[in-house]
């Protein structure tokens, strides 16, 4: 690893680059920007910036960088959004600062009391249930309820199956997208990092999906906490 990092002319194979970046907690473009650019494809494939076999293998630094650099839009449309509170230190303070600076912050959640949530809990059969994970997010959002530019909605009941099967996290012109596989929980499902380069590409398709769910969602107010 030291030899690769000390000599810019030495570029390891992709598998080794992924392992090094995971170990260091940094994005590949920070260490080997030329290799990233060399792998960029043409057409709509250009929007696929990186892929990870599991969401958990995407470095936390990628999430932190995207959140920090977003200026106009942070849209977290995972079904629970639970993990971001655990993996991003001081997220409450970060979101409050961003909202105060004019950035629009949105959370789209699954309804913890819905039939979709109940069925998924049966499928996953884990101690930390889907509804519990949603309520962790609601508890944190309640602390931001007095902050402007922060909105939260539950997806509509009819949209539950479409929402729980696909998580979209948008940060301005970047998005992290996770299609949930069969019985896998979120961190075991694959993740794509998309970067918008034009109209009607991969980024827009997934962004439009999240916006459609948002448009039919039910506002959570005045406080996100439920009895």
Can you walk me through this structure?
The chain has 227 residues and is α+β, with helices and mostly antiparallel strands. Helices cover 41% and strands 18% of the residues. It has eleven helices and eight strands. Strands 1-7-6-5-2-3-4-8 form an eight-stranded mixed sheet, sandwiched between helices. β5 (166-171) and β6 form a beta hairpin. The longest helix is centred in the last third of the chain and has 14 residues, at 202-215. The radius of gyration is 18 Å and the shape is globular. It starts with a helix and ends in an 8-residue tail after the last strand. The model has no long low-confidence stretch (mean pLDDT 86).
Task: Supply the key terms.
single chain; 227 residues; alpha+beta; 8-stranded mixed β-sheet; 41% helix; globular
Q: Distance between the terminal alpha carbons, to the nearest Å?
A: 52 Å
- Low-confidence segments, given as residue ranges, are none
Strand count, sense and closure of the main sheet? 8 strands, mixed
The secondary-structure element order is HHHHEHEHHEHHEHEEEHE
Please compute the radius of gyration using only Cα atoms.
Answer: 18 Å
Give the overall pLDDT as a whole number: 86
Short description:
The protein has 227 residues and is an alpha+beta fold.
